[in-house]
Amino acid sequence: MSESVESKSTDKSAEIICVGTELLLGDILNSNAQFLAQALAQLGIAHYYQTVVGDNPARIKSAVNQAGDRSQLLIFTGGLGPTPDDLTHETLAACFNVPLIEHPEILADITHKFAQRGRVFTENNRKQALLPEGALVLTNESGSAPGIIWQPRPGLTILTFPGVPAEMQRMWRDVAVPYLQSQGWGQTTIYSRTLRFWGVSESALAEKVNPFFDRQNPTVAPYANHGEVKLRISARASSEAEAQQLIAPVEQQLRELGGLDCYGADNDSLASVVGALLKTTQTTLAVAESCTGGGLGAIITSVPGSSSYFLGGVISYDNAIKVQLLDVSEHDLNEHGAVSDTVAKKMAAGVRSRLGTSWGLSITGVAGPDGGTDSKPVGLVYIGLAGPTAVQSFEYRFGASRGRDWIRLLSTATALDCLRRELLIKLDQ
């Protein structure tokens, strides 16, 4: 969320502290932090800091002291297991100078779960029953490691969760959320809507919508990844419905400014949007691919129900396949080359004719890292589009600096975007 939305929050804020050397080494993706960040936003709890710390008591203690000075709710994940490097609870107890107390009910629960699963209870599992004095048990129905709900001093609440994402998420939903709400946390909600754009740079879009970046509630923030640009609209309100009402007029204005470059919102993808348009127009699609090697077909068929409009495709990596299956002439290949405006058109028209579809979409290009020339450098891509009334082609120069996979990704997405824009034009006619 943007800083301007955060500034509207109450004085109370949460901080996420993820414990585990494996996180620092990059061996495990820190999905727990993402889940908790989104969950805090849904509850309307302000959240300004995240920390990842290894399995080291001195560094964990330092993280606790620093976080406790600036945040009122500390949420820990990891370090609750039975091994010597699981140090979260004992370090927390040391931070606040309290002893660890063994809980017989936790021992009984662990023993019962082990018996159900055919596992043997070992002595090191007793460690999981040791919690800081005064802490309440945050029950774990899925695993053996319980967490805690603890107020070690006035104005500070600590929640701990195991590092296993499925266990943590269930404990959060079943126990932590009701507790936090009962304590007055989450009296507001932060709701976000993300508009998605293709075919425009982040800087160009930002210039168009620049006045919106000064808004306070809702706020608008841009970001870009994987070739697309997004505008996130975030509102703070007493309910999700109220937040949606605040967002709606801003979204409408941004869509109008973005025009055809705005292809969807939230979980939309270019493939899903194109699929919906093909259904609406009751038309069908086939593809012919060279440098993308089936990537376009894979993206199209990732959408459930795509069989109703996508008939199939041809991966014509070799020129002989272009000739035999797509009716590209050897003369055109010799005269213009496989990577050319002419061949892109012939590939699109050929696959449309051979498969009997309304639309034919083709890609041919130089994905690299080798094969480029001065006239046809790495990153040069032609996209062909054959429809009921015309055959077109579009030239793109994606450059070589980001490598082969980047060129292929941009090629497939841009091909879908070309078809999307043409379908929208047909709908307006």
TrEMBL record:
**MoaB/Mog domain location:** 15-182
The family database entries (SMART domains) matched by this protein are listed as:
MoCF_biosynth
Which SUPFAM superfamilies did the record assign?
Answer: CinA-like (SSF142433), Molybdenum cofactor biosynthesis proteins (SSF53218)
Q: Which residues form a coiled coil?
A: none
Q: Name one Pfam family in it.
A: CinA_KH
The record's Gene3D superfamilies line, in alphabetical order, gives: 3.30.70.2860, CinA-like, MoaB/Mog-like domain
Entry's family note: Belongs to the CinA family.
Protein's UniProt name: CinA-like protein
